[in-house]
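User: I'm writing a short report section on ligand binding and want a predicted complex to refer to. Could you take this sequence and coenzyme A and write out the structure as tokens? A short remark afterwards would be nice.
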Amino acid sequence: MSAPAADAPELPRAPAAPAPSEPAAESQRAVERVERFTDDDLHALCEATHAAIIDGGGFGWVNPPGHRALESYYRGVLLVPERALFLARLNGTVVGAAQLVRPPRNNEAQAFAATLMHSFVAPYARGHGLARLLTGHVEESARALGYQVLNLDVRETQAVALRLYESMGFVRWGVHPAYARVGGKTVRGYYYYKLLQVPARRRAEAADAAGEAGA
Ligand SMILES: CC(C)(COP(=O)(O)OP(=O)(O)OC[C@H]1O[C@@H](n2cnc3c(N)ncnc32)[C@H](O)[C@@H]1OP(=O)(O)O)[C@@H](O)C(=O)NCCC(=O)NCCS
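Assistant: Sure. The structure tokens for the complex follow:
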């Protein structure tokens, strides 16, 4: 598998891969990559973002910036070539999102690694397996593009997210002592990676090695 070239390939549209896990649920869940918004979807995405920020954030924002600012932000995300926006739906309504961020073209040394950022699910849609589904889709998309590593970082306070990522095979390799400032308090950040293109056995060895290095 070759690393993404300087002429990075187009991101695939809505990966058709099946969800990595499909726990039984009465509610209808879906994840897709979006390249254009309908008015309803953009409105619902801003509502979900606002609710998640109010609930405690954990994906960047601390204070809700207002609906118009959020709309501008998301329209801007769609214009950034290195970013792909994935939406999570519950019974058809957008309730969460995540971004796959590719390295800029000048960063040849890290051209093999993409980053999962700004992932969240609105409080009113949590516990349906959507974050697991969303993360799996972003990961599959990165893998399909030839990326060998998926990076992410999380505030130490986001306990559910930390458990989720660790259960999906992300390996914690570092702690940033001054990662974020929330409510006047400095919060640590945990840094994770996942090797995407290697057999499970080598992934386990790499995880062991990282564990030993950190011990
Ligand atoms: C982290 C977050 C995305 C999880 O969203 P979600 O859709 O509720 O997560 P899922 O339903 O996919 O559940 C993922 C796992 O966490 C567990 N979980 C979910 N909510 C939980 C809770 N409140 N307490 C304990 N475990 C919980 C689930 O049981 C599931 O584990 P399992 O698959 O082994 O059963 C959501 O809580 C959130 O947006 N938090 C704030 C923002 C954030 O932390 N973003 C991630 C870092 S950028």
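A remark for your report: Strands lie at 29-34, 83-90, 93-101, 113-121, 149-155, 171-182, 185-195. The pocket of coenzyme A is lined by residues 52, 58-59, 119-121, 126-132, 154, 158, 160-161, 163-164, 167 (CB under 6 Å).
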